[in-house]
Amino acid sequence: MKKIATIIVTYNGEKWIQKCLDSVLNSTYSSDIYLVDNCSTDNTLAIVKEYSKEYSLAIEALNTNSGFGFANNYALKKLLSSDYDYFFLMNQDLYLEENVLGKLVSFAESHLEMGIIAPIQFDGKGKKIDTNFQQYIKLSEEKENYFETSFCNAAAWLVSKSCIEKVGLFNPIFQHYGEDRNYCERAKFHDFKIAIVKETKVLHDRNQKMTTEKAIKLAKIKLLTIFLNPNKTKSESMTSGLINVFGISKYLFKKYNSFGAVFQILPEYFRLYKRRNELELEKLKQK
């Protein structure tokens, strides 16, 4: 039986954390739980500490909210020298079906070329596939029992130890959002593939609605991931970034009737363009 460490990053997650932990503890495939808290100000830690009295649960409480990537890196640095075969990264607002970890590990063992393996994310009630996740599947290549994809968000990732040892940790340049897309691109650079496994299900209990403001924020972060994509040359990154400025702006205009999106995204492109040489050096460090 392969050994898994489940890493859960929390921040003010009292609304979800009990159901999240229960879903891991009730899994038919056991894993060790490592929880990293990003300086919650609600009752998250108190709830988690109550669980630790009854269950084996390692807790790390950080003194700042340094983001998803930093918190996962904090745990992974401690655990990489251990005998874990896989690391399952999951959000605090995610709930596992009982058999999902077993299905992911079984798939991983028969597809060693996959560095990142993800279950299909449904909404919080389990009624329909998560809105954003539908887009990841749509952009993927369908195989017999999985989708080969270029990206899916890291709310639920099974990552092989060999992938982390070769690709490294999350890039700390990304604090909130973007770190998972950058990691997928680096994984592909190192010849790892990414899979979404059919017949798997987790519930992602998050707001399914996207605001214009958040869409623009994510668009700016996507530009940074393009400039740091190790699979692209510097000129390819600049060209792709510029194409995305107008492509994303067109999308935001159609979806949100946002006339000013391009005037917010274009300046971000020029800011990154001025830093292109610096970002190329950062790209080399992450290869």
Descriptive notes:
The chain has helices at 17-25, 44-54, 68-79, 100-110, 131-138, 161-167, 179-189, 212-227, 234-256, 261-274, 276-285, and strands spanning 4-10, 32-37, 57-61, 86-91, 94-96, 114-118, 121-123, 141-142, 146-149, 156-160, 193-197, 202-204. The longest helix has 23 residues, at 234-256. It has 11 helices and 12 strands. Helix content is 46%, strand content 19%. The protein is globular.
Care to give the gist of this entry?
The protein is an alpha/beta fold and 287 residues long.
Comma- or semicolon-separated keywords:
alpha/beta; 11 helices; 12 strands; 287 residues; globular; nine-stranded mixed sheet; three-stranded mixed sheet
Helicity level, as a percent range?
Answer: 40-55%
By DSSP (H or I, 4+ residues per run), the number of helices equals 11
Distance between the termini: 32 Å
How much of the sequence lies in strands comes to: 15-25%
Strand count, sense and closure of the main sheet?
A: 9 strands, mixed
H-E string: EHEHEHEEHEEHEEEHHEEHHHH
Mean pLDDT: 94
Which structural category fits the helices and strands?
alpha/beta
Return Rg in Å.
Answer: 19 Å
- The shape is globular
So what's the oligomer here? single chain
What's the β-strand tally?
12
Please list the strands of the largest sheet in the order they lie side by side: 3-2-1-4-10-6-11-9-8
Low-confidence stretches: none
